[in-house]
Specification:
The protein has helices at 16-25, 46-57, 99-108, 129-135, 151-166, 186-201, 205-214, 222-234, 249-252, and strands at 2-3, 38-41, 65-71, 80-82, 87-90, 93-96, 113-114, 140-146, 172-177, 182-184, 239-247, 258-267. It is an alpha/beta fold. It has one domain: 3-Layer(aba) Sandwich (Protocatechuate 4,5-dioxygenase, Chain B), CATH 3.40.830.10. Strands 2, 3, 4, 7, 8, 9, 10, 11 and 12 form a nine-stranded mixed sheet that branches. Strand 5 and strand 6 (93-96) form a beta hairpin. Helix 6 runs antiparallel to helix 7 (205-214).
């Protein structure tokens, strides 16, 4: 099964040479690399969030597999959907799905379903691939989308992911795809996003979940971020650092209605 690009030519350049050039302009230089247990990266069009995503990918060792967890914006498919076989394609290359790890996640998680339909048109994971292909085209992926979940369901998925990762003998990094506040003034976005990021950087998944809900922060990937944080802690994450934060206003010059982007790395 080959998953063709859904937002090529929209969220990122549609030809291989132009996409490689686009990715390259967003990479950090001279950054020390470290082994990441988990990361959080944004998923807007690369012109807006590429600098944040690029800074994260430039600062980590590439694992053998990324467990990629993103929000389901389309409403298609299962509430928690794992694609467990095939390849994903972008103009610069293809990444295979880690069937062994995907199967073990499904086996260990009651609330997750084997489902490719949810991934057909979803962009939140697709926009990560150009960066991964650039650094490590041999890296495999396990794509997971989340449409809705309670905190307990997030914890159940996280425990299943962590147990599956513990069962393999190769490096795996958990990737949560999330943008921050949507379509609010820049000042409000930075204020609200800081309250959520403070909980994430404090390794407080329950606090992150509750803060986003209570403060009505329009962080579209707070469920994937919660799962990533719980699973990373199970796997030994002891610290988190904010690699970069910016808003769309920093690119467009429009600070009246912005989207926030944050890049975070968790290490043991």
């Amino acid at each position: 099964m080959l998953r063709h690009p859904s937002v090529s030519g929209q969220f990122y350049h549609g030809s291989a040479p132009r996409l490689e050039q686009q990715v390259s302009q967003y990479l950090g230089t001279g950054m020390a690399r470290e082994k990441a247990v988990g990361i959080m990266v944004p998923h807007a069009g690369l012109v807006y969030s590429g600098a944040v995503a690029g800074a994260v990918y430039s600062s980590i060792d590439m694992p053998k597999t990324f467990v990629m967890i993103g929000p389901n914006h389309t409403g298609l498919g299962a509430r928690i959907a794992v694609m467990d076989e095939g390849e994903w394609e972008v103009p610069t290359g293809k990444l295979r799905i880690d069937r062994k790890l995907a199967g073990r996640i499904l086996m260990n998680t009651e609330c997750a379903e084997r489902d490719a339909k949810a991934h057909t048109f979803e962009h939140s994971l697709e926009v990560q691939l150009p960066f991964i292909v650039h650094f490590s085209p041999e890296t495999a992926i396990v794509p997971i989308t989340m449409l809705s979940a309670t905190y307990d369901q997030c914890a159940g998925l996280a425990e299943g992911v962590a147990k599956a990762i513990q069962s393999v003998d190769y490096p795996v990094t958990i990737l949560a795809s999330s943008d921050m506040s949507h379509y609010v003034p820049d000042r409000i976005a930075r204020q609200k996003d800081k309250t959520a990021l403070d909980r994430l950087l404090s390794l407080d998944p329950r606090g992150l979940f509750d803060t986003v809900v209570r403060e009505r922060i329009s962080m579209c990937g707070y469920l994937p971020a919660t799962v990533m944080l719980i699973a990373s802690k199970i796997l030994g994450a002891a610290s988190a650092r904010l690699v970069r934060y910016m808003t769309s206003g920093d690119v467009s010059g429009d600070y009246e209605s912005v989207v926030g982007y944050a890049g975070v790395v968790l290490t043991a």
